[in-house]
Amino acid sequence: MSTTQSERLRELLEPLVASQGLDLEEIAVDSVGRRRVLSVVVDSDTGADLDRIADVSRALSAKLDETDAMGEGEYTLEVGTPGAERSLTQHRHYVRATDRLVRFQLHEGGELVARILAVDEDGLDLEVPGVKGRKPTTRRLPFGDIDKARVQVEFNRKDTKNTENTDHTDHTENTDNKTEEEEA
Description:
Blueprint: H1 3-19, E1 23-32, E2 35-43, H2 50-65, E3 75-80, H3 91-96, E4 101-106, E5 111-119, E6 123-128, E7 137-142, E8 146-151, H4 160-165, H5 180-183
Parallel strand pairs: 2-3
Antiparallel strand pairs: 1-2, 4-5, 4-8, 5-6, 6-7
Helix pairs in contact: 1-2
């Protein structure tokens, strides 16, 4: 996609996305066979559920239909959110990734995997996981030291926020007048 088309699409679509309370993160036009696919990635500080994505998709589709921004020919509009392993490129991305594990490529070379604890204008406060039974350590990382950053998927993470603040007891109804311990 040419820069001019990308800029025109961003100028056209960004106000509509913002009116839905979302941020326009990315626009890409790709050719798939004879068809073109316009992919629009949206997000917000609170996330984007399916209803919000559907609403913004309808608004974008209507706006694109009334303009010639996509030129002649058919295209498919795809609206979605960033993937699980999204790249962090803007300050708001780091804020949204607070409490997530991130792999950092550093300017000085090397790599760091750490959990974002806090974000301010100058950089990040991180928790670096302990190795071989050692306790985690904290570290300050200025934005200027970061070359690339990507959120990591965690399959086995124990969510400490939910286990501390939520009662996970199974409250199934017992009609036999026995306690759960007696049944076990």
